[in-house]
Structure formats: C-alpha cells, structure tokens
Amino acid sequence: MRRLPSSRDDDWRDPNVSSVPPDIAGERARRASDFATRPRPSCRPTRSAHVGIAGAGFSGAVIARELAEAGHRVTVFDTRDHVAGNCYTARDPTSGVMVHVYGPHIFHTKWEHVWEYINRFGVMRRYNHRVKATVRDIVYSLPVNLHTINQFFGTAMGPAEAQAFIAAKVESRDEIVSFADQAVAFVGGDLYEAFLAGYTRKQWGTDPTELPASILRRLPLRFNYEDSYFDDPYQAIPQDGYTPIVEAILEHPGIEVRLSSTLARSDVDAFDHVVWTGSIDAFFDHEQGRLGYRTLTFEREVHDGDFQGCPVMNYCDRDVPFTRITEHKHFAPWESHERTVTYREYSGPAGPSDISYYPVRLVKEKAQLLQYVELARAARGVTFVGRLGTYRYLDMDVTIKEALDASAVLNTGLATGDKLHAFVVDPMA
Ligand SMILES: Cc1cc2nc3c(=O)[nH]c(=O)nc-3n(C[C@H](O)[C@H](O)[C@H](O)COP(=O)(O)OP(=O)(O)OC[C@H]3O[C@@H](n4cnc5c(N)ncnc54)[C@H](O)[C@@H]3O)c2cc1C
Description:
Elements: H1 22-37, E1 50-54, H2 58-69, E2 73-78, E3 89-91, E4 98-100, E5 107-109, H3 112-119, E6 124-126, E7 131-135, E8 138-142, H4 146-153, H5 159-169, H6 179-187, H7 189-204, E9 234-238, H8 242-250, E10 255-259, E11 273-276, H9 280-283, E12 293-304, E13 312-315, E14 324-327, E15 339-349, E16 358-359, H10 363-378, E17 382-384, H11 386-389, H12 396-416
Parallel strand pairs: 1-2, 1-11, 2-10, 7-13, 11-17
Antiparallel strand pairs: 3-4, 5-9, 6-9, 7-8, 12-15, 12-16, 13-14, 14-15
The structure holds flavin-adenine dinucleotide.
C-alpha cells in the first residue's frame, strides 16, 4: 500500500492550535507517541479484506475492532495525535485532574448491550450527573424541577399545585413555529426568559425566535425534587478516562493505528473498503460548500481547592459571554486533588480551521447535506458513519450502537461480496 501523507486536511488541525490548553498538549503528545510506537503483533489472516478507517473516535474504533475480530485487516487513521476523537481525556499535568479535553462527557445509556460493550474495555464507575444554573446571580438546579420552580417564584408549592401553576403560565399559540414558541408552550414566558432564551442564543448564535421549533422536541420539566440530569439506567464515567478505553478497543493484532495521518478520498482505492467517520463534506473537498458547525473555545484556569462545588454550572444570562463552566475533578469523585481545573466555555460559528463540534442542521445546511448524501450514494468503496460522517449530534451510546450495527452490515457484505452502501443510517432521517 502506498504511504499516506500526514495532516493535510487543515479542517482537522491539531486542536492545540485553537482550543486545547497547552499543558494538555504536552501530555497528549507523550501518550500519542507511547501509543503509536507500542509494538503490535502482525496479523495476516487468509482471505481477509483490508479496510481503511478515517477516524479513531468511538465510531472508528468500534468498527475497527468488530472487523478485526471477524478476521479482516484494518488500518485506522486519525489526523489528531491521539485516539478517542472528541471523547479524549488526559491528565492535567499541573493539578493531576483528569480533563475532558473537548468538553464534558458523561456516559449514559438505556441499551444493555452497549453498556456491556464498553465495560469489556475498562472500569466504568457509577456517576450521577447534576447541573446547576446561574441566573441573575442566583444559583438554581437543572433540569427545571420543583426546587427550581419554588426557588424562582419564591413559593413552597407541592407537585400538583406547581403543575397547575405552570399550566396557568404556559402560553398557547395558534401555531408553533420557532424554538421560542415551543419553549413558552412548555414552561411559560418567565422560565423561558430566565433559563432558555439567553443560553440558547449564546449556544446557537441566533435568537430563539429565529430557530425552528424542531430543535426543542422535549423539555424536561419535573414536578418533584429529582435533579439527576439523565434518566438512563446506566450512567457512568470511566475510572481512568475515555482514552484508555478506546486504546483497549483498538488493541487487536488485526488493527494498525496511524496517528497524525489523514485519510483522503484519493486513498480509497488502496483499500478493499473505506469507513469514513470524518466530515462528509471534507470527503468531497467541500465541493458543495462547507456544512455549518458550531465550535467551542475553552478558557482553562487552575485554582486551589474547589472552584464551584459542582461539575457544570450553566450561565443563562445573555450578557454573560460564556455558556458554562466545567470543573473537571467533579467527574471523578473517587479521586482527590488539592488543585482544580476549570474550562470556561464559549460557543461560536466554526471557521475552516476550527474544530467542528455541533452540526447546525437548519434549512440551508439540510439542503446542502442532501447534495452530499447524493454524492455519497454515487461514490464507490466508502461507507459514512458517526457524528461527522452523517452530520448529526450523537451521544456516545448512540455512536457505539450505530457502530456495532454498521459493523454487522459491513462484515456481512465483506463476507458475501455484496455491494456495501454509503450509509447504514440515513443522515437525512
Ligand atoms: C461538547 C460536547 C460534549 C459532549 N458530551 C457528551 C456526553 O456528555 N455524553 C455523550 O454520550 N456524548 C457526548 N458528546 C458526543 C460525543 O462526543 C460523540 O458521541 C462522539 O465523539 C462521536 O464519536 P465519533 O467517533 O463519531 O466522532 P469523533 O469523536 O469526532 O471522532 C472522529 C475522529 O475522526 C478524525 N478524522 C476526521 N477526518 C479524518 C480523516 N480524513 N482522516 C483521519 N482522521 C479523521 C478526527 O480527528 C476525530 O478524531 C458530546 C459532544 C460534544 C461536542
């Protein structure tokens, strides 16, 4: 196979350039070189396909493992100098705290097989996520629950009374068009203005009256004191962070990992098949324009002791420029550290050299996406998977589930010689 060039897609620049704090970059380089140079036994199964995978996040790693276990040879490329994609974690060298480098990641799922899968590769520790919100210098509990309601309105209502109270505040509209209409229909104008209007505007860079109602399908509003952020039966954080879990998934004699190496469309012919977990528009050199993403910038600070007493504090007021502060040591309550690391998080439109975090998926982007989906369906030898390959926001459990489903389809196709399709999950759905 011809040698593939390194880091030539500047869409996927080293995140250190734009938003990864420098201390983490040093730790990351050390881990990356350890991992990349670790000797791996060679595997030459007979009658196996050689599959190239763009991306060593959960999507690429799970598919690599499933194909390798079925006897195929897999080469996994990642533009970055580390595995685990946006779930990458690394110890902060100043404080020793395990940092979620691309933003806070809490594993939660209702699917037993996904829970069993991740537990094969590392120790998952039970973790119950709780989020607070600051509104006009008062701290509330999220998602909006009976405590939030009573505190906000200065009342001491019970569940039934609060339900009737909110029902009277909810504004019915003839037509629900925008995010703002939908939110007011769920919680009423007061709670919407305090907890949603400013935050949403900062997160999406657009006034909620301009955003479609479809963004807000459901709003958790609890008439009891339950303040767990998620309600899935399995909620956890890996004891040693996500990076060793993804490394363990990739630790198989049939898998070769090439870090700081970018796969391109022109490399497809070097493989029997390619799985693309990078951006679908990057595969086609953005020929229909760049799909819109929101990017994040993190301002890192190190403090003594405990900074805010909780893992995530949202800042809902529109005149506060950041959206939230994450304090990473609270994601590992089983550890103790004298110092603490915080990330102040800002949201903005992603430029060509920024990291793509959240797909925008409004009307314009969906029309553009359709053009890429059509191009992908006409392409040969490549299957698009994962959050970037299908331009959707995916939680980690959905990512793993879809990667397992895609692997089953790919393994069957590789065994039978049937045509492998561009998508296992329709990105337009
Ligand atoms: C701020 C934030 C917070 C989140 N919090 C949670 C949470 O609490 N819980 C949860 O379940 N999920 C969370 N998620 C979602 C989670 O990050 C995703 O589910 C997961 O990262 C998807 O994995 P992936 O492999 O599809 O993509 P990624 O993790 O993005 O991996 C894709 C990889 O492909 C590489 N790549 C791209 N193109 C190429 C190429 N051409 N050649 C080589 N490599 C390439 C990239 O460098 C990247 O490393 C969060 C997401 C964000 C943005």
